[in-house]
Structure formats: structure tokens, C-alpha cells
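User: Round two. Same drill as before: sequence, then structure, for each protein.

Assistant: Same drill it is. First protein:
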Amino acid sequence: MNLLEPIGWVALALLVWTHVGYPLFAFAWSKLLPRHIDAFDIEPRVALIIAAHNEADVIEAKIENALALDYPPEKLRIIVTSDASDDGTDEIVLRYASRGVELVRAERGGKVNAQDTAVRQLDDATEVIAFSDANCAWQTDALRRLVRPLSDSRVAYVCGRLSLMRADGTNREGTYWRFEVALRGWESKMHSVTGGNGSIYAVRRDAYVYVDPRFGHDLSFPYLMVKNGWIATYVPDAIASEKPTTDLGDEFKRKVRMFGHCWLLVFYGRMFSLLKLGPLYWIEMISHRLLRYSSGLLHVVLLLASIVLAVANGGIWWLTLLAQLAVIGMALVSAKTAARFTPCALAQYYVLVTLATLVALYQALFKGIEPGWERPKGTR
């Protein structure tokens, strides 16, 4: 019992830190000691790579969106890299060949494999590689704004802001995402971002790295850039928009897949090397990434400790136990009543995301994670 109490306190402290303490710390640092990054209007030669797997229903709109970007056409290559699409996606892309749109066909191997296949075919004139998903729309000035921080020779990776449209169903991803976007901005002003998003980002051609296709670029690229001596930053006014998954069931599957890639990075990506990351960015990675991925484990430890300690010691542990049961109860109420924007719906989202970290950990340890992906329902 003497050992169980400090274990419970540590689990509680780490959960409070990653969800509350660290965001406050990042906000304060970004205001008091912001890192300055130059951002001037530049027009490097850009290859915009759009990864697609069976996107026949949205690829035409995406290509038209890319062609409408406010950027010199002679300095922009638009490339759709097809991950063995068999629904007519490739045929639609080929209809745009006369307007300069290129098709690269890859064997089925997942998004990163498709992206790598396209990158290997770029010529030496390409200075910047930008990436986007097939189901999102960029604002007309998004690319121009996205490349501006690359005028600073220290910056190698830039991600824009993904704006999620309102979900049609029970998913509360938009509420969480607004918080995550704010935290990304604070991290960018502290040192570098710890994660990007696949809808809108760019990297210097000479900084591009080939990673395990199971890792994904969203989480591997920012920390690899920092390990290699660069800065990874965020541009809130380079905006892309897309629909989130409709319901929590679909979002849960997406989170399990995402956290599976996260755990692979932890186990095999040497993600938390102290010497290469530096102390401040290491704090960012531990606080925002490792502890966030470990939330499920920490909650299990805290719940079990709270049950035992509440019975044995009472006092604060009863309150801790009741607080956890209240969140679980609110989540169950939301699941039964399909509540929308209420504390119960947010509790349900939090519980499912926390559970997703545990399911993903199990799959990463015992079942393996595949690099391929199937597009979530309701996002097109």
C-alpha cells in the first residue's frame, strides 16, 4: 500500500501535466520568450504532391483547387501519386495532363510509399515539396503563405492550419482540434512543432527524409527535422479545410490507426533522443507526445490505484475515484442518448480517444501496423 499511493500520485500528476499543465506552460513560454522566424514573400519552385487511394469522387475537385492556387504556374508542379487506385481515380487525373497535372502510380503500399515514389521522380529544379490529401481544399493563397517561413534558412518543415468543418454526427473532433491547433501555435513559438497534419505541409527538398512507411510524415517529420538541426514551424494563415469523420465510431477507428503509428515511432523511431533534440524540444515531445500516447495506461493505473486507496485510505482518493467514474458515466450517457455538443459528448470523445491509445498499443505490440490506409467514412 505504501508503494501504491506514490504510483497513483505520479499517474495523476502526469495526466494533469500533459492535459493542463503543459498547455499552460507552452502558452506562457510563447508569450514571454517567443522564437522569431523570418517570413518573407518568396516563390521557390514547388512540387505539390497529392496522395490518393480510390479518390474518384473528390480528386477532380482537388485538382481544380490546386490549379486555382495563387502561385506562378511555371514554378508549380502538381503531381497526384496514386496508391494503386482502381476506382477510376487515375483516369480522371490523366484528363488533366494537358493542364500540366502529372500522375505517378505506385504499388499498393500506403500513403508514405506513394509520396516517396513521387519524390524519387522529381528533378533537381524542385526546391520545396508540398503535400496535401485528396479530400481537402486549400485557400487560394495557402501555398504562398505556406512557403514564406522557408525564407528563414533555419526552417526546413512548415505545416499549415487544417480547419475542420462541422461534423454531421456525434464526432467532437472539431472541439479537440481547435485546442490542438492553439497548442501547435504555442509550440511553434517555443521551439518547433511536435506534429503536423497531412492536409497541408511542406519541406525543403534537401531536408526530405525517407522514413518507414508505417510511421507517416505527420509525427516523424517534425522531430526528424529538429534532430537534423532544422526548425519545424507552423503557419496559421496557410489554411486547408476538410470534413471530419461523421461519428465517434469512425473517429475511434481513425484514432486507433493514428496511435498505432505513434507507438511504432516510440518503439522504433528513436523519437526521444536527449542529445539530438535539446532540452526544450525534448520537454515538448515528452509532454505533448509520449505522455499523450500513454494516457490510456496512466488512466488504468490511476483508476486501479484509486479503487484500492479509496477503500484503504479514503479522503482524497474517494474524490479522485468519483471524478473518474463521473467522466465514464457522462460518456455512457452520451453513448446511450447520442448527445451532441454537451459535456457528456466531450466526455465520450475523451474516453474513446483514451481507449484508442490502449487498443493501438496492443495492436502495435502483438498484431502489427500496416502502412496502407482506407479512407474514413464521411470525410469526402
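Second protein:
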Amino acid sequence: MSRVLDEVRGRLSLSERIALYVPGYRGYKEKELRREADRLIREHLLRKLEPAYRDFKSSMAAVAAAGDPGLMQLYSQVQAVFDRVLAKLRTASYGYSGFFDAVKIREPELDRMLEYDWGLIQAADALASAARSVAAAEPGKVPEALASLRNKLLEFEGLLLKREEVIRGVVGEA
């Protein structure tokens, strides 16, 4: 089980913990706890990546000062991928499935999603570090730093796309 899920369970009030023993309610509440843990992990990822995005954006002046059209194009590409990644994190599924949905997301899938999301935190740390490297790069090293950031962003975006497959049980854990 996930460390975050255990932490969410620990925050339950006494009456909520007692209610977990009510037949029928326990399964419902367990799903909700898993969804809440997943939401907390993704909010944590956003809190890591949004400052990294600001760091990246601060490098725009150095890119513009270089006057290199190829460098400006690379910067624009990186910004587009960064925007997509942040949007996917903001709008990613919380693991909810409605009563009539064709694909039902049950507790084992929610647990896989939690573990997968927990693994995304390490990837987000590497991404944030790469964004800071672009902002701190010397003028001659900016293209290399931007290319590295683009690669890390594309890897992270791939992990986010694979997340949907993990939820549905199409692939195993990463």
C-alpha cells in the first residue's frame, strides 16, 4: 500500500475511522481515500514543477539576447511541451469511474495508480533540476541545457501517458 494512502488514513477523525467498519461504507470510503491520496501526489508534483516552469521562463531573456532563431525555436518547443505536461497533471483523472462507465477503476487499479504516481515524484525532481540548469546556464551552454530539459519533459510526458495504461491494467507498473 502507498505511504501517501497511509498518511491520508492517519488523518481520519475518530468518527470516520469507526465508519470504516460499517458494511458497504468501507469500500466506498477506501476508494475515496485512494483518490484523495492520488490527488495529493499530483498536487505535490505541480508544486514541484510550477516553480521549475518559472525558472525555465526566466531564461527567455538569455535566449532572446542570443539572437539565434534556432535557439528561439528550441525554446518554443520546450515551452510547448512544458505547458502540455503541466496541463496533463492538472487535468489527469483522479481514478473516478461512474456507475455506467465501460472501464471500471477498482481498488487494485487505484493502488497501481498511486504507486505509479509516487514514482513520478523522482522524475519530477530530475525535471525541476533540468529547468533550473537552463536558467543558470552560461550563454554558450543554453542550447545544451534546453535540449536536456526537452528530453526530460518528453520522458515525463511519456510517463503521464503510460499512467492511463497503468490505471486500466494494460501494462504493469513502471
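The chain has one domain: 44-168.

User: Perfect.
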